[in-house]
Specification:
Shape of chain B: globular
Largest interface: A-B, 60 and 58 residues
Radius of gyration of chain B: 17 Å
Strand order of the largest sheet of chain B: 4-3-2-1-5-10-12-13-14-15
CATH architecture of chain B: 3-Layer(aba) Sandwich
Structural class of chain A: alpha/beta
Number of domains of chain A: 1
CATH class of chain A: Alpha Beta
Structural class of chain B: alpha/beta
Helix content of chain A: 10-25%
Mean pLDDT of chain B: 95
Mean pLDDT of chain A: 96
CATH superfamily of chain B: Glutaconate Coenzyme A-transferase
CATH topology of chain A: Glutaconate Coenzyme A-transferase
CATH topology of chain B: Glutaconate Coenzyme A-transferase
Order of helices and strands of chain A: HEHEHEHEHEEEEEHEE
CATH architecture of chain A: 3-Layer(aba) Sandwich
Strand content of chain B: 25-35%
Number of strands of chain B: 15
Helix content of chain B: 10-25%
Strand content of chain A: 25-35%
Oligomer: heterodimer
Distance between the termini of chain A: 54 Å
Distance between the termini of chain B: 14 Å
Shape of chain A: globular
Number of helices of chain A: 6
Number of strands of chain A: 11
Largest sheet of chain B: 10 strands, mixed
Number of domains of chain B: 1
Order of helices and strands of chain B: HEHEEEHEEEEEHEEEEEHE
Chain lengths: 232, 218
């Protein structure tokens, strides 16, 4: 078993134009910086990206938007990206906005082998248009389908060479369930260790879900909203 | 005098009860955390995957891996827990969160809310708002009573795309506190110095004034 690849370029080498990708992260927290940079370098386009957010103008998925590599975004919130809003309002970019919990759960369903789930969010809104509705215990639920994604690209704090992953703080966010949902899952980690160096009880995503892993480099970890209080 | 944002937050904080798990949205709702009453202990949920959200970090202690749902740097507290987004919305959907406070562009007198999209103008997305309003047991909206043009945001029917239907129970605006009932908005408190006439003039939806309406006390 060898899941370790040398770097981001090797990890994404078979991602071609037209592919559907999941990209982990919430805002700029826990995003796969190295793989995004490699996708920009490779210049693939017509991508469908499933990601909670679309980065900011000059970082994260924003870098791919600048190069017009994205055909369609499936996200819950895109408010931090002016270029995104411009492409969307001008019709250059297709977008499907879906509730954040629905996004997470559609990833989870894929990772758990469930074709669809009934969810509350969005009943009576445009999110529910054209979808099957069913009443359970007096409440109306919408049928939402599991995502079908060619690749999932996630970022973990630590991983071992067998693909077991551990996340740090709120950089966990969408990463675990996306890791479980990809047909091919690529994990970039800050620390790549040998099997046995992570306590099995502490593993968040077991390696069975991860196909390729590498230790990333030069993480910028940009902060979107730096909020602090003064020391007394 | 209409309330300022801090005062709206301060009034909402009086709704917090000991032991509550609370999700505070972005904007005025975030300020509620500054006014938690003495003797009341609540746990703040941030839907990106944190229970037990602490205050902003001290200068120099910011951690890019530790943020809230508004992408602000925050801290953990003793007893905090971190989890993934699916579990986060699982606990919301399962009704474990006792109170949700969020902002709105429009609220209708039947409890409908619109806060995520202005067609052709602003497309930011709903984030977790649709999940929260669909599932939370108790939802309070913090909002300005009118838009910058002076038009009522408490309406007979929302004009913008909906976030949720029939889900809002209470609105705290700069003019007062309003329960949402089968009879529409019921004004239960008015802000100091605000008249019932002003509230009536600025509320487009069905409005009743509670028999025991009183001036808000801080």
């Amino acid at each position: 078993m060898n899941k370790v690849v040398a770097n981001a370029d090797e990890a994404i080498k078979d991602i071609n134009s037209g592919a559907t990708l999941m990209l982990g992260g919430f805002g700029l927290c826990g995003i796969p910086e190295n793989c995004i940079a490699a996708l920009v370098r490779k210049g693939v386009n017509n991508l469908t990206c499933i990601s909670n957010n679309a980065g900011v103008d000059d970082f994260g998925i924003g870098l791919m938007l600048q190069k017009k590599q994205v055909k369609k975004m499936i996200s819950s919130y895109v408010g931090e990206n002016a270029e995104f809003e411009r492409q969307l309002l001008s019709g250059e970019l297709e977008v499907e906005l879906i509730p954040q919990g629905t996004l997470a759960t559609r990833c989870m369903a894929a990772g758990y082998g469930m074709p669809a789930v009934y969810l509350l969010a969005g009943f009576g809104t445009e999110v529910a248009e054209g979808k099957e509705v069913r009443n359970f215990n007096g409440k109306n639920y919408i049928l939402e389908h599991a995502f079908d994604s060619d690749f999932a690209i996630v970022k973990a704090w630590k991983g071992d060479t067998m693909g077991n992953l551990v996340f740090k703080e709120t950089a966990r966010n969408f990463n675990p369930m996306m890791a479980m949902a990809g047909k091919i899952t690529i994990a970039e980690v800050e620390h790549l260790v040998k099997p046995g160096e992570i306590d099995p009880d502490h593993i968040h995503v077991p390696g069975i879900y991860v196909h390729r892993i590498f230790e990333g480099e030069n993480y910028e970890k940009r902060i979107e909203q730096r909020t602090v209080r003064k020391r007394n | 005098m209409a309330l300022n944002k801090e005062q709206i937050a301060q009034r909402i904080a009086k709704e917090l009860k000991d032991g509550y798990y609370v999700n505070l949205g972005i904007g005025i709702p975030t300020l509620v955390a500054n006014y938690i009453p003495e003797g009341v202990s609540v746990v703040l949920q941030s839907e990106n995957g944190l229970l037990g959200m602490g205050p902003f970090p001290f200068e120099g202690d910011e951690d890019p891996d530790l943020i809230n749902a508004g992408k602000q740097t925050v801290t953990t507290l003793p007893g905090s827990a971190i989890f993934d987004s699916a579990m986060s919305f699982g606990m919301i959907r399962a009704g474990k969160v006792d109170l949700t406070v969020l902002g709105a562009m429009e609220v209708a007198d039947n409890g409908d809310i619109a806060n995520w999209k202005i067609p052709g103008k602003m497309v930011k997305g709903m984030g977790g708002a649709m999940d929260l309003v669909a599932a939370a047991k108790n939802i309070i909206v913090a909002m300005q009573h009118t838009n910058p043009k002076g038009e009522s945001k408490l309406l007979p029917k929302c004009t913008l795309p909906l976030t949720g239907v029939g889900c809002i129970k209470k609105v705290v605006s700069d003019l007062g506190v309003f329960d949402i009932t089968p009879d529409g908005f019921v004004c239960i408190e008015y802000a100091p110095g605000v008249t019932i006439e002003e509230i009536k003039a600025k509320t487009a939806g069905r409005l009743k004034i509670a028999d025991d309406v009183k001036e808000m006390v801080f």
